[in-house]
Write a structure and sequence with these properties.
Elements: E1 2-6, E2 9-14, E3 20-22, E4 27-28, E5 33-35, E6 46-50, E7 55-58, E8 64-65, E9 111-118, E10 123-127, H1 130-135, E11 152-156, H2 161-171, E12 185-187, H3 188-193, H4 216-219, E13 229-231, E14 234-247, E15 258-272, E16 282-283, H5 286-293, E17 300-311, E18 320-336, E19 344-360
Parallel strand pairs: 13-16
Antiparallel strand pairs: 1-14, 2-13, 2-17, 3-11, 3-12, 4-5, 5-10, 6-9, 6-11, 7-8, 9-10, 14-15, 15-19, 17-18, 18-19
Length: 362
């Protein structure tokens, strides 16, 4: 059975990308970015950043919000606060004249939620609004300073509050985990799988409250996924569903017997390639291009192929929607570029997992 869509409506829900853990060395001060090897996060994605010591974002007064990560000596790479601004070289006194200034006078920011932009060099920058994150405006980019935040977790911001709370507890339990000399970013899974062992303090028995990062099954469970986004600039789609049969006839019978095998699906999408400013509930066709390049978590998308969308009850027609829903994997993309014509693309996909037909108004 083939289902064809003319100017069809396709709605996608991407898999949430992997959580990343950044070392302080990942900060690029010249561009206010974090260097990463991951390609899972796309422009405009909502993210949450967490660190027990604090985050490197600057206040309006130009002070990073991570007082425990400030430098104590001259010549270091980290930011010196007001309590150490008097130290210029080794000949200066460690304490200021007023010993009350021993502790840095700076605000503490443990968590931040906003939007991310990935540039051509695969560096991540952060913004307060979705529109600025799509454009990567340098004027509205959140400024950062080099501080020793020890380990900072970045995860998808479109998730449950309970999951974010679990990540916050995990950020406080990273202990003495150290990064490789050649790598300033790892996945949270690698930290949880190879977490350091602790003799003191002893691991607690309460969930998310022990230094050994237990229970593993809770921490390694990914969030439910992203919000549903309508794919813009889609010309048409086709969905082909089939259920193969298996012959179960007994030798000698006059008529054959058969049972249905698994239900499989696949199809194609035709779309125009363009970059446009969009809302958080919209996805341009570039999302399809990114899905092909991913091979692990994030390569799958939950798709809804609408045949009837929000119909009203009239002339014996029932109100509501009619659509197929399935997880899909993009397997092939062909782009067509001719002079003085639009840039068009075709993508082939296959379904994975259950395929269901949804209908009705609720």
């Amino acid at each position: 059975m083939a289902v064809l869509g003319v100017e069809g409506k396709l709605v996608l829900q991407r898999e949430a990308p992997k959580e990343l853990v950044f070392a302080p060395g990942a900060i690029n001060l010249a561009s206010d970015t974090l260097q990463t090897a991951s390609t899972d996060y796309l422009n405009g994605d909502e993210v949450v950043l967490l660190s027990e010591r604090g985050l490197p974002f600057l206040t309006a007064g130009g002070v990073p919000q991570c007082p425990d990560g400030f430098a104590n000596y001259a010549g270091g790479i980290y930011y010196k606060g007001t309590n150490r601004s008097h130290i210029a070289d080794d000949s200066d006194s460690f304490y200021a004249n007023n010993n009350d200034d021993f502790y840095a006078d700076a605000p503490l920011l443990n968590a931040w939620q906003g939007f991310v932009y990935r540039d051509k060099l695969n560096r991540l920058s952060f913004y307060s609004t979705h529109s600025d994150a799509l454009n990567g405006n340098t004027e509205s980019r959140l400024a950062m300073e080099s501080v020793d935040y020890h380990a900072m977790i970045m995860a998808s911001g479109v998730t449950t509050q309970n999951y974010i709370s679990a990540l916050a507890a995990c950020a406080g339990d990273l202990g003495e985990y150290t990064f490789s000399d050649a790598q300033d970013e790892v996945t949270l899974k690698s930290v949880c799988d190879y977490a350091p062992t602790y003799e003191n303090p002893l691991a607690g028995s309460t969930e998310y409250d022990d230094a050994n990062l237990s229970p593993r099954h809770r921490i390694n469970t990914p969030p439910t996924g992203f919000i549903w986004q309508v794919v813009c600039d889609l010309a048409n789609w086709s969905l082909d569903l089939s259920a193969d049969s298996i012959d179960t006839s007994v030798v000698g019978e006059k008529f054959g017997e058969a049972v249905k095998s698994i239900v499989t699906g696949g199809g194609s999408l035709e779309f125009m390639v363009d970059r446009k400013n969009k809302t958080e509930l919209q996805a341009d066709s570039n999302t399809i291009l990114h899905l092909l390049m991913m091979t692990e978590q994030g390569c799958k998308a939950n798709a809804q192929f609408y045949m009837i969308s929000s119909a009203s009850e009239s002339c014996n027609a029932l109100s509501g929607d009619l659509y197929y829903q399935a997880d899909i994997l993009i397997t092939n993309i062909a782009l067509n570029l001719r002079p003085q014509e639009i840039v068009a693309g075709t993508a082939n996909f296959v379904s994975t997992g259950a395929i269901s037909l949804k209908q009705g108004s609720n």
